[in-house]
Amino acid sequence: MLTASFPASVFGTNCYVIAPGQGEDCVVVDPGIGVVDTLRDALEELKLRPAAVLLTHGHVDHVYSVTPVCGGTVGAYIHSDDRYRLVDPVSSLGPQLIGMFEQQFGKAPTWTEPSDVVEIRDHQTLQLAGMTFEVRHTPGHTEGSVLFGVEDIPDGLPPEAAVTSTVLSGDTLFAGSIGRTDLAGGDGEAMTRSLRDVILPLPDASLVLPGHGPGTTMARERATNPYLQNLQTA
Question: Which of 35, 37, 149, 204 could staple 134 via S-S, CB 3.0–4.6 A?
Answer without folding.
Answer: 149
